[in-house]
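User: If you would, consider this record:
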Amino acid sequence: MVVDAALRLPFFSMVDASDLLPHGWCSDVERCVDEASMETVLRGGEPGSLEPVGTEISYRLIDGEAVATRLPWLRSLYEDPFLRLAETVSGRLLEVDTSLRSAVNINILPAHGGGYEWHCDTNPVTGVLFLTSHPDGQGGALELTGPGGHVWRIQPLEGYLAFFDARKSPHRVTSASTPRISAPMNFYLQGEGRIRPKGLDDRLYR
């Protein structure tokens, strides 16, 4: 999948990470979703959102503390080798998020729900591990806005890991016909520390 040049982001790359996932990972994730996910609502106009005031999008979330406890293999992959892959793709020296809660989460978007809101990232490198596949025509696409308002659509492939810098590119996830599960993760430049808008974590983890 060649999308780097077309997207006109600082970088965008899809990496097949399926060989790095442990045997039985899918069952582990399903169990964690059943036992540890919490309902949350994204509201337009709140910190980090580009949606209009009055917009409400419901989804389920597993925070980084639950990921570290229930899916330790995912936390280990995040710390290395995913960190090394992110450095290779971005060409930058990176470090993981110092906040366990926000470092690597799992988002569960319900079938025929509102997807995930329009927003821009605050961290210089975002990784998203797709845990379900959503072929073209079935929704669940990652949409990124480029120059002139053109929107590129990336369909999730189970076991693939997307890396990108979308601090200046509004993006969202479209509504899917089946539940969509992914693991977004934050990476920061070495020595620069963690940057998060005031109120963002309170909004996501209330």
Q: What stands out?
A: Confidence is low (pLDDT under 50) at residues 1-6. The longest strand covers residues 180-189.
